Amino acid sequence: MALALVEGGVVRAVFVELLTAVLEVKDKIVQFYPILQKLKTTLQSLDPIIGEIQKYHKQLERKKEELGRLIEQMKEGKELVLKCSKIHWWKILSKPHYHNKLCALDAALERFLKFDLAAQTARTGLGTLVKVDEIHSKVTSNIVTEMKGLCAPLPPPKFTVGLDGHVEELKGRLLNGGVSVIVLTAAGGLGKSTLAKKLCWDKQVKGKFGDNIFFLTFSKSPNLKTITQNLFQHKGLKVPEFLSDEDAVNKLGNLLNHIGEKPILLVLDDVWSGSEALIEKLNLQLPDYKILVTSRFAIQRFGDPYHVKPLSNKDATTLLCQSASLLDSSSNILDEDFVGEIVKGYGGFPLALILVGGSLRGKPIGIWQDRVREWSKGNLAPDSDADLLDLLGELLEVLGTKEIIKECFMDLGLFPKDQKIPAAALIDMWVELHKLDEDGVKAMTYIYELNTRNLAQIVVTRRLAGEMDKYYNDHFVTQYDLLRELAIKESSQGPVDKRKRLIVDIIGNDLPNWWTQNELQKVTSRVLSISTGDKFTSEWCNIEPTKVEVLVLNLQTKNYNLPLFMGTMSKVKVLIVTNYYFSHAEFKNLELLGSLCNLRRMRIEKISIPFFVQLKNLRKLSLFMCNVNQAFESHSHPISDAFPNLIEMNIDYCTDVVKLPDGLCYIGPLKILSITNCHKLFALPEEIGELINLEVLRLNSCTDLEELPNSIGSLGKLSILDVSNCISLNKLSEYFGELCSLKKIYMRGCSRLSELPSSVMDLEHLNVVVCDEETAALWEQLKPILENLKIEVPKVDINLDWLHTHQS
User: Fold this and answer.
1) Thinking of the domain 164-307, which architecture would CATH place it in?
2) How many other C-beta atoms lie within 10 A of the C-beta of residue 310?
3) Coiled-coil regions in this chain (predicted)?
4) Where are the chain's structural domains?
5) What is the pLDDT of residues 712-729, one digit of tens each?
6) Which residues are registered as beta bridge partners of 550?
7) How far apart are the first and last CA of the chain?
8) How far is residue 532's CA from residue 549's CA, in Å, rounded to a whole number?
9) Residue 244's pLDDT band (boundaries 50, 70, 90)?
10) Helix or strand holding residue 268 (H, E)
């Protein structure tokens, strides 16, 4: 009996510890909020039953191992919840791993609640537990966790043709035993990657491999260490350093053994000839381990490759008409012979048909006829990548593409293969190159036109303040590989010294011949893009790029020397630096930025910034996933002295930021300040009221921010305020009503904000409040006073595609 009392008391104590942990962290880790809220409900339903267990343990006659299992589950659950609370923002990629564990814990507790206790009730007839089965809803056995992460496959396009038969045939090979490496081959533009994605998202394939499906896009010079690091990061594990490729293989084997409860599928997409040895190293001898390779090259080492053929005439016609939006229209173009002529001319290549269809969408029959006559002159169906590129190049000329749109299309080649391009970066470039309005609206229309013509695709990851407020930081642009190759080819016409844009892709330390031919090579291009890999040692040869106005640096390393020739680049107006390495990079000679005396826009991504360099003409600064707290605390250049003419500042996912420097509040011209997803930021400076020209303040998803300072009432020009997902925000300043120009407030996810200050009744220009239903009730009471107020409660719009932004 003593043992029974002790064990019953332990159950109660462990239960209280678990419930306390959930309540303490639930609102602080927004990425796990839904499942923690669910777990809280389950625990609260279980609370009275735990009391009965403690009181009637002896009568329950529960087997010792049953009770011990419950105690262990709750102990492990407490540790899991605490571990989730310590996951840093850059480990958000591990969400599926921890989310699954939390779901399993909740399901186990529900099983105990519904079935175990119900069984004991039947066995003992204990009256106090008769209605246990009614306490909670049915067990959530159909929890579905989307595969999201660094190496997770993106969903295939919603509309595809001609691939279902291939899926069924290849699926048989993946689901059965036997061959461990399957090579899928076809010419460029025939849909290899799309087919691979369809396979990954097939219900039977997902049922077998679960979340052990990894999708990696190769480069021409793939790196085994980087591949392995990405897999570790994808699984939410500490990323190790590797002494050698052999060390990387050994640690990869340990990783795959560790996660190998289910079979494993590794997809290697767009593998180039010469990578066979690397595939061999990845082909570990593990049970139920499959590798699917897609390649333009018929790699024979692993057996007969599976060939994907061009589309049939029927499928090609369907795809063309879908791309031209004819399938759902009443147009009689479908009945015309020239549809068949177009299909015949492009030989069943999906990419060409998508491009043609997009160009002719909404056009009258006469335009279709003219275009057919134009591109049918000597046109032959392509039978190689080179032929298809030539054909696409001709298409670009005859599609009626405006010169500005063609220029914008070619600019997409400035960024690395298989990376999402931030729309904000393109806007920065085009505003300066084409002298567009600084708000970016016109530049964004160019992106939409590229999307309409199927020359690129727009991906919107998270909708924050929305496009109506000219906010595009969550818009990205993707592009088919072959179209990127076309953009580079079109940009590379003519001698190096005559090109408008110069694209340099350095593999290892091999600089292009033109760079090393002369002791000092003059570069006359307006745009210069330089991409380097993790093996580049930053040993630059000297060039003279004095005409360059836009400089794009794509790097993949922990340490990076800015090129010395930046000291001569006095005409540069836009600088875009992106680090695609899994950890932050450090500049060894940051002082060189000070040479860019005419720099107006700068976007820096995944860089550690120890201090700010003085840039007196800088008007827009964007810091994404950077370590900047050291720079904020540095006194070498106060931020107000470093950027005295700054108009817009964006700080996103810089989660080492604890507080903002006071000097930021003394940048007089500042109009837009966006500090988003900075989860450690707990307060704004009291001096924020000094920003008398501030018009837009975004604080979205600053989850530790508890309140707004009283001085916020001094922001007389502020028209837009976004505090959405500031889950710790518990009050607005009493001076909030002094925001005399405020028109819009975004405040979804402010769950702790239980009341509004009485001064909000003075917000006579307030037109729109976007919030949750609970917060809407607070504002509804003010409608008789604020006659123009419109309250919007939008549906939750969550899209985690942003996780693939840096997929390597």
Assistant:
1) 3-Layer(aba) Sandwich (3.40)
2) 21
3) 53-80
4) 2-134, 164-307, 313-395, 619-808
5) 999 999 999 999 989 889
6) 527, 574
7) 61
8) 20
9) confident
10) strand 264-271
